[in-house]
């Protein structure tokens, strides 16, 4: 009743044509935006959205198209995004705790499930405490400014994720950028940074464009030598790297040497949304007082909390899902190498098929979709010039047959476009 009345009260019944703002400034803005958009199209870097008409999973139906598309471009590494128990947990949390909190955490936005999930995350990573955010982008935006002052220094891998770069931009610490995974360069920068009060080395645990893994053992050794702290972003590692899926620090045996972990609930851990920081209790306490995306943004909705909490339960019960993903990754990587392709990275479900030429990556990705295989081509400025690629992401819920069909399609399309001899 109230909705119908409200809609009727809107001019045009709420369903009229969009109105363009009038005035010279609005017209000037429109011209400037249109020209900028034209430049993006002209540069060949336009990003469009493909609309999915089904749940996230290994097999998709695209809007306006047929079904039966095999999806190789989600971060759904463990296949939990549409896992029946994860969905059921979300529905139960929705029914019991409502749609949302209409509040930030410290006003009236903390429910028992938020505290339980923070405790579970800390336990999963074997850390003292954890704090939730609406996303890992927010966790990265909130940590450096809260922790570091102009007396301190942050040393960041040049290929770190955009959200780490933005988070560092927001803080007033002295900034050092070291060459990608280059330990000599990191050491030189650590020597230079000795004059500051505190040094924090910040790196992705696994890099999403190359599927390569940060040399954390060496980073931690240098950090020890030069009295620095280590921060890792584990978005592409949490839940599946390491013997029990704890992440890069477990994989490389340095769980007790990494001080701070930021990660996401929006990839392997159910795929809904949300991020977190886990680490020493006083740090988490400080973030609750100072971190702006935490203080000034709404609490995670209960359904989202329910998904992540169930995903963590499943992972803490057994690492069978992570092992099955590792076996499938191995199958894809070895079959593609045997077919003559170069796959970047090692043992990671992000498998970039290196092609070099941007147009080749784009036409091959399009042709793969014509064969029912959904993959995405990446070119400059997302990756360096001349290093265009098609990024394939393997999931525990791909069947061996899905993987083999993908390799066959790559082989056909690669031959057709001259990427394979
Ligand atoms: N860090 C890395 C390395 C990522 O790949 C992403 C997501 O693309 C993020 C942070 C942001 O995560 P979220 O989607 O939770 O904001």
From TrEMBL:
Give its E.C. classification number. Answer: 2.3.1.29
For whether the record's keyword set contains Lipoprotein, the answer is: no
Q: Which SUPFAM superfamilies match?
A: PLP-dependent transferases (SSF53383)
So which cofactors does this thing need? pyridoxal 5'-phosphate
Q: Where does the record place a coiled coil?
A: none
GO CC, any one term: mitochondrial matrix
Question: Which InterPro entries does the protein's record reference?
Answer: 2am3keto_CoA_ligase, Aminotrans_II_pyridoxalP_BS, Aminotransferase_I/II_large, AON_synthase_class-II, PyrdxlP-dep_Trfase, PyrdxlP-dep_Trfase_major, PyrdxlP-dep_Trfase_small
The GO terms this record gives for MF are: glycine C-acetyltransferase activity; pyridoxal phosphate binding
Start and end residues of each Aminotransferase class I/classII large domain: 69-410
Keyword annotations:
Acyltransferase, Pyridoxal phosphate, Transferase, Transit peptide
Q: Which GO terms describe its biological process?
A: L-threonine catabolic process
Q: Which reaction does it catalyse?
A: glycine + acetyl-CoA = (2S)-2-amino-3-oxobutanoate + CoA
Residues in the signal sequence: none
| Any one Pfam family match given in the protein's UniProt record, by short name | Aminotran_1_2
What HAMAP family has UniProt attached to this entry?
2am3keto_CoA_ligase
Enumerate the PANTHER family for this protein: 2-AMINO-3-KETOBUTYRATE COENZYME A LIGASE, MITOCHONDRIAL (PTHR13693:SF102), CLASS II AMINOTRANSFERASE/8-AMINO-7-OXONONANOATE SYNTHASE (PTHR13693)
Give the family, as the similarity comment puts it.
Belongs to the class-II pyridoxal-phosphate-dependent aminotransferase family.
The name this protein carries in UniProt is: 2-amino-3-ketobutyrate coenzyme A ligase, mitochondrial
């Amino acid at each position: 009743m109230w909705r119908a009345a409200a809609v009727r009260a809107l001019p045009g019944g709420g369903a009229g044509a969009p109105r363009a703002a009038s005035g010279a400034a609005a017209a000037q803005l429109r011209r400037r935006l249109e020209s900028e958009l034209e430049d993006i199209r002209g540069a060949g870097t336009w990003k469009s959205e493909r609309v999915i008409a089904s749940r996230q999973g290994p097999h998709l139906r695209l809007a306006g198209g047929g079904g039966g598309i095999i999806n190789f471009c989600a971060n759904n590494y463990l296949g939990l995004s549409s896992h029946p128990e994860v969905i059921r947990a979300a529905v139960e949390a929705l029914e019991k705790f409502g749609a949302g909190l209409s509040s930030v955490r410290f006003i009236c936005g903390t429910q028992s499930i938020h505290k339980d999930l923070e405790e579970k995350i800390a336990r999963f990573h074997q850390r003292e405490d954890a704090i939730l955010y609406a996303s890992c982008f927010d966790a990265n935006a909130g940590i450096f400014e809260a922790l570091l002052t102009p007396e301190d220094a942050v040393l960041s891998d040049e290929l770190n994720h955009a959200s780490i770069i933005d988070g560092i931009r927001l803080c007033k610490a002295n900034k050092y950028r070291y060459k990608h995974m280059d330990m000599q360069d990191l050491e030189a920068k650590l020597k230079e940074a000795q004059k500051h009060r505190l040094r924090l080395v910040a790196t992705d645990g696994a890099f999403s464009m190359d599927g390569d893994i940060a040399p954390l053992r060496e980073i931690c050794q240098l950090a020890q030598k030069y009295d620095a702290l280590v921060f890792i972003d584990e978005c592409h590692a949490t839940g599946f790297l390491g013997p029990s899926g704890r992440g890069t620090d477990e994989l490389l045996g340095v769980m007790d040497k990494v001080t701070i972990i930021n990660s996401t609930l929006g990839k392997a851990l159910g795929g809904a949304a949300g991020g977190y920081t886990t680490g020493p209790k006083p740090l988490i306490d400080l973030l609750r007082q100072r971190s702006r995306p935490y203080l000034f943004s709404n609490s995670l909705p209960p359904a989202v909390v329910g998904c992540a909490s169930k995903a963590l339960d499943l992972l803490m019960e057994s690492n069978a899902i992570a092992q099955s993903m590792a076996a499938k990754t191995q199958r894809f990587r070895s079959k593609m190498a045997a077919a003559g392709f170069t796959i970047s990275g090692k043992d990671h479900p992000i498998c970039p098929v290196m092609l070099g030429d941007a147009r080749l990556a784009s036409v091959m990705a399009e042709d793969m979709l014509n064969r029912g295989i959904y993959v995405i081509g990446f070119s400059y400025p997302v990756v360096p010039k001349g290093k265009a690629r098609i990024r394939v992401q393997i999931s525990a819920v791909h069947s061996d047959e899905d993987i083999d069909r993908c390799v066959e399609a790559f082989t056909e399309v690669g031959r057709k476009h001259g990427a394979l001899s």
